[in-house]
Design goal:
This protein is α+β, with helices and mostly antiparallel strands. It contains 19 helices and 11 strands. It has helices at residues 26-35, 42-51, 54-65, 87-98, 113-127, 132-140, 142-145, 149-160, 290-326, 338-366, 371-402, 405-408, 416-429, 434-446, 450-458, 466-482, 488-507, 510-521, 538-545; strands spanning 69-73, 79-84, 179-182, 198-205, 208-221, 227-234, 237-244, 255-260, 271-284, 328-329, 332-333. Strands 3, 4, 5, 6, 7, 8 and 9 form a 7-stranded mixed beta sheet that branches. Strands 1-2 form a two-stranded antiparallel ribbon. A two-stranded antiparallel ribbon has the order 10-11. Helix 5 (113-127) crosses helix 9 (290-326), helix 9 packs antiparallel against helix 10 (338-366) and helix 11 (371-402) crosses helix 17. The radius of gyration is 24 Å and the shape is globular. The model has no long low-confidence stretch (mean pLDDT 97). Bound molecules: flavin-adenine dinucleotide. Flavin-adenine dinucleotide is lined by residues 180-184, 188-191, 219-221, 263, 266, 271, 426, 429-436.
Length: 548
């Protein structure tokens, strides 16, 4: 660096690059050991090195600075409805697909395939979260797409292929495919029963019953995906339909991209508004039963929202720790200032608890044949999506503040903290906003013996901390008391904290368990981060969380 005549630049931290994101994440490693003791972490080590590399971080910056552009027509006036991306977007997509984040578990024989992929998804989020939108939807589509065996036979192998192929081509010519979903319309997103898009029967062929779809979707992310599951009304009611961008004969399907959304964050990902004009689509599952069918996809993307926000929290925490280790104020490094230690330790607790909960949920998807695991997945999906994503924005703000003014500055995409902060709210909104998740928890509690499954889940944590013991003893009564619409958020919060504490009791060192239980369960805490009691073991909490 050259020196300026007026002053020397000093006390400005070095960027956090070329760090293995897996090897430096003890909370993730311990959660993995707990949930999947047999898992070979070698692929995660490799992905951690790649995702933390300076080269990939440059791709992440460029993909967010040079945002997607819509090309509705070619220069001769033909409609093409294509989105053009910066090469760095494709480099990121290629890396995510090569790592199998878009679908590897569906083609794997390992008992831990979903949890391996979940940990990889968290690591990749620390690199760049917005390209993970199509990656997540592609991963999520398989359970629903199996509702049409013929299409699944043709598309299944392409959905697990490790080759990223961004060209719009007929499926037979593709090396790999991505898929998206279209539910939300202008007049309603949470309440999809208000959908007005219509589907008219149009015969049948090797892929089953064919329909012509006319209508619109107000949010339609990643419109360059090869196909989508969409909701439309047939005579029998809302149905789930498979709508490819390119038809088997090579012609383009009648999907018009009206415009791209100008979003707060999630900049590298194109989210669009579309119209269908007699677009061709095939029925998936039972006609008139489209909502439960497409919600099988929604369930998996909700898992990814929890994983994604946990990854963003870890990234924000690492940046805050890295910065405060280097920056000096009032004669000490910031990380040595007692009050900053409180803030950082509190963030570390939140981040570790999010990691533990999200990975526990992922384990449920590996063991769905086990009734307990199925019940836990049903219960923890809305809870994790609600609580972790809800905590994300406050977490991002506090982590940003640790960097002072630098945290708020974008500087051509180099200010990663600002990008994280802008990204945080989206996982809370899409795939079912907070209230919808809390209401879904009520539904989960009504079906089967969810309370018994929860009690079974918490039992191994008994005797570790008095506040946790009290919560375990009183939770059944609290569930009965709070299981109403008006208090559904309180219920989701209480269950989330109880499960997080119970998980930490089994995976984390005593300093983490004690501070988490005392603050989150015992009430020895304030309403902002950095309000832990002076009794917390700050040194142990910080040493555990440091990214080096
Ligand atoms: C960047 C981005 C990308 C997206 N991509 C896609 C996509 O690819 N495909 C797709 O289908 N959708 C997509 N969405 C849409 C997203 O899933 C919806 O925005 C979301 O489901 C909420 O629907 P809505 O916007 O219509 O809000 P509304 O349904 O109007 O909800 C507004 C608020 O009311 C609350 N609410 C609703 N009902 C109740 C109730 N009964 N009780 C209490 N509160 C209630 C909600 O929780 C929410 O806070 C995307 C959204 C964003 C922001």
């Amino acid at each position: 660096m050259s020196e300026f005549a007026t002053h020397e630049v000093f006390n400005q931290p070095q960027p956090l690059v070329d760090v293995n994101l897996f090897e430096t994440n003890r909370a993730l490693q311990d959660a993995l050991r707990f949930n999947a003791p047999q898992l070979d972490p070698a692929p995660l080590r490799a992905l951690g090195a790649l995702a933390g590399s300076a080269e990939m971080q440059t791709h992440a910056r460029l993909a967010n600075v040079h945002t997607p552009e819509l090309r509705t027509h070619d220069r001769f006036g033909h409609r093409i409805d294509e989105v053009e991306f910066h090469p760095s977007y494709h480099a990121l997509m290629s890396a995510a697909v090569a790592a199998g984040l878009h679908g590897a578990p569906w083609g794997a024989s390992s008992a831990d395939a979903h949890i391996l992929r979940a940990a990889g998804f968290m690591l990749f989020t620390e690199l760049e979260p917005s390209i993970l939108c199509p990656i997540s939807m592609t991963y999520a589509v398989t359970p629903a797409l199996r509702g049409n065996g013929a299409i699944y036979r043709d598309w299944g192998p392409l959905l697990t292929s490790r080759s990223y192929d961004p060209q719009l081509k007929p499926w037979r010519a593709k090396a790999g495919v991505t898929m998206g979903m279209g539910m939300t319309e202008k007049q309603g997103g949470s309440d999809v029963r208000s959908n007005t898009t219509r589907a008219v029967a149009d015969g049948s062929d090797g892929w089953g019953r064919r329909f012509r779809v006319t209508g619109h979707k107000w949010f339609f992310s990643a419109p360059m995906c090869d196909a989508f599951l969409v909701l439309a009304n047939t005579e029998a009611g809302l149905s789930c339909l498979f709508l490819p961008r390119v038809l088997p004969d090579g012609s383009r399907n009648a999907l018009r991209i009206q415009r791209l959304k100008d979003k707060l964050g999630n900049k590298a990902n194109a989210s669009s508004e579309v119209e269908f004009e007699q677009a061709t689509a095939w029925l998936v599952g039972e006609e008139g039963r489209g909502v439960p069918m497409i919600l099988q996809m929604g369930t998996m993307t909700r898992l990814d929202c929890a994983l994604g926000t946990s990854g963003l929290m870890r990234q924000a925490l690492s940046l805050a720790l890295h910065h405060t280790q280097q920056r000096v104020a009032f004669g000490k490094r910031l990380i040595e200032q007692p009050l900053m230690r409180n803030v950082l330790a509190d963030l570390a607790l939140e981040s570790e608890a999010a990691t533990a909960l999200a990975l526990r949920l992922a384990r449920g998807y590996d063991r769905r044949d086990d009734p307990h695991e199925a019940a836990i997945a049903r219960l923890l999906t809305p809870i994790s999506k609600f609580w972790i994503c809800k905590r994300g924005s406050a977490f991002g703000q506090e982590a940003m503040e640790c960097l002072g003014g630098n945290g708020y500055v974008e500087e051509n995409g180099e200010g990663v903290m600002a990008r994280i902060y802008r990204e945080m709210p989206v996982n809370s909104i899409w795939e079912g906003a907070g209230n919808i998740m809390a209401l879904d928890l009520l539904r989960a509690l009504r079906g089967g013996d969810a309370a018994a499954a929860l009690a079974h889940e918490l039992a191994p944590a008994r005797g570790v901390h008095p506040a946790l013991d009290h919560v375990i003893a009183t939770l059944p009564m609290r569930i009965e008391l709070l299981a109403t619409e008006v208090e559904a958020r309180r219920l989701a919060q209480e269950v989330a904290l109880a499960v997080q504490a119970a998980l930490l009791a089994q995976t984390a060192p005593p300093a983490v368990v004690d501070a988490f239980c005392a603050s989150r369960l015992g009430g020895d805490w304030g309403q902002a981060f950095g309000t832990l009691s002076a009794r917390a073991d700050f040194e142990a909490l910080l040493q555990r969380a440091l990214p080096q």
